[in-house]
């Protein structure tokens, strides 16, 4: 698989994963991820799945770095009410805001959110996610189960997606 | 965000839901499908795609950088040329000197075309032909200077070195063309006005402070100055006349 194919195939998923993780600049971080893969492209093993696993391993590391940095240094960004996680959404926002699927993930712990995003957005297997998060497959299954249970408890989830 | 989901998307979500077990609601499935939509984020800029072949990019950059350096140096040289041209257009002195230089070069080339190393030598010889006309103006200022506030300055210069006599000045004379006579004249002419100026009412009086400098002079100088007082008066008249003439 050439780098071009790799980029075309996985850059949307990587960017979507980073966006769902609320990284400050998802596109730039996506570029960073692919630039980190570029020197290793010759030594890649495992075909497409191996490349995907490596890509999301690097993306996961970038996310962890981002949140660690964010915990130390306050983000110097313009105030955007939509991105302010300290506020609770109003009933109108919950009813109207169609892109607030990410707001559903607020109730999840970081690890639960990570597992869901890696499973659904990155389309990785349980084993791959376990390898990336450096946990056992059983603990990943447990995190996934708890994440879905927490989502299910959300009041808005029952009527989600129905007009 | 893409709201249409492919079979693969549905398969991914269904797999996750089946792994969790239990009965899952449609609402949760829809929410997870929407989350799956993040995998189809809008296409990114093709910047990275263009950089796929890194060595080619590096070479291109290097070429561009070299081109840039060449263009920059060319622009700097052109700007300097324009500046020199503007200076030549603005000042006639510059043009005159340039014309003299060119004329000297041409004449020297015409005289000795076989020895290009010596072509620069005739230039000084050609230049003195012009100076006689130009220095004709400076002497007048010198005389004027003897009668004007600059004279006390020359006095102060002699006062600063008390051991200096006229002979010493004459010894220095050969180094400065036409100065020895003027210096010998200038010092008395400058001294006398210091005392005579108040009566004469010549505007040199404001520079009386130079007189303290004369107090340090040797007796010989004083005698010489007194002895040449009448001469300096004449000189003064002459210089004044010249000064007026020059004006």
UniProtKB/TrEMBL annotation, chain B:
<feature type="compositionally biased region" description="Low complexity">
    <location>
        <begin position="114"/>
        <end position="128"/>
    </location>
</feature>
<protein>
    <submittedName>
        <fullName>Uncharacterized protein</fullName>
    </submittedName>
</protein>
<keyword id="KW-0472">Membrane</keyword>
<feature type="compositionally biased region" description="Pro residues">
    <location>
        <begin position="129"/>
        <end position="141"/>
    </location>
</feature>
<feature type="transmembrane region" description="Helical">
    <location>
        <begin position="69"/>
        <end position="90"/>
    </location>
</feature>
<keyword id="KW-0812">Transmembrane</keyword>
<feature type="region of interest" description="Disordered">
    <location>
        <begin position="114"/>
        <end position="247"/>
    </location>
</feature>
<keyword id="KW-1133">Transmembrane helix</keyword>
């Amino acid at each position: 698989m050439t780098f071009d194919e790799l980029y075309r195939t996985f850059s949307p998923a990587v960017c979507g994963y980073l966006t769902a993780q609320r990284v400050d600049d998802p596109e730039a971080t996506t570029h960073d991820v692919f630039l980190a893969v570029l020197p290793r492209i010759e030594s890649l093993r495992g075909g497409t799945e191996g490349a995907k696993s490596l890509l999301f391993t690097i993306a996961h590391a970038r996310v962890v770095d981002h949140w660690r940095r964010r915990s130390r240094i306050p983000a110097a960004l313009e105030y955007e009410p939509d991105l302010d996680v300290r506020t609770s959404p109003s009933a109108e926002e919950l009813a109207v805001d169609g892109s607030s699927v990410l707001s559903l993930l607020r109730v999840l712990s970081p690890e639960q959110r990570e597992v869901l995003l890696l499973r659904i957005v990155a389309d990785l297997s349980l084993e791959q996610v376990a390898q990336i998060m450096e946990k056992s497959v059983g603990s990943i299954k447990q995190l996934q189960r708890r994440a879905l249970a927490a989502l299910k408890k959300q009041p808005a989830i029952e009527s989600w997606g129905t007009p | 965000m893409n709201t249409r989901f492919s079979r693969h998307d549905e398969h991914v979500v269904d797999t996750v839901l089946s792994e969790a077990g239990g009965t899952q609601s449609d609402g949760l499935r829809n929410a997870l499908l929407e989350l799956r939509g993040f995998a189809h984020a809008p296409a990114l800029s093709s910047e990275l795609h263009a950089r796929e072949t890194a060595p080619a990019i590096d070479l291109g950059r290097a070429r561009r950088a070299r081109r840039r350096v060449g263009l920059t140096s060319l622009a700097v040289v052109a700007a300097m040329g324009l500046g020199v041209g503007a200076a030549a257009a603005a000042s006639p002195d510059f043009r005159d000197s340039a014309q003299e230089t060119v004329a000297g070069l041409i004449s020297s080339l015409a005289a000795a075309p076989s020895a290009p190393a010596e072509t620069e030598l005739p230039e000084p010889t050609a230049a003195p032909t012009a100076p006689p006309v130009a220095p004709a103006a400076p002497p007048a200022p010198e005389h004027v200077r003897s009668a004007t506030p600059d004279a006390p300055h020359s006095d102060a210069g002699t006062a600063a070195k008390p051991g200096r006599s006229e002979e010493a000045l004459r010894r220095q004379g050969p180094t400065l063309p036409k100065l020895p006579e003027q210096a010998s004249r200038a010092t008395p002419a400058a001294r006398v006005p210091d005392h005579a100026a108040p009566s004469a009412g010549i505007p040199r009086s404001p520079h009386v402070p130079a007189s303290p400098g004369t107090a340090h002079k040797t007796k010989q100088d004083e005698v010489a100055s007194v002895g040449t007082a009448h001469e300096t008066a004449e000189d003064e008249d002459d210089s004044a006349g010249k000064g007026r003439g020059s004006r």
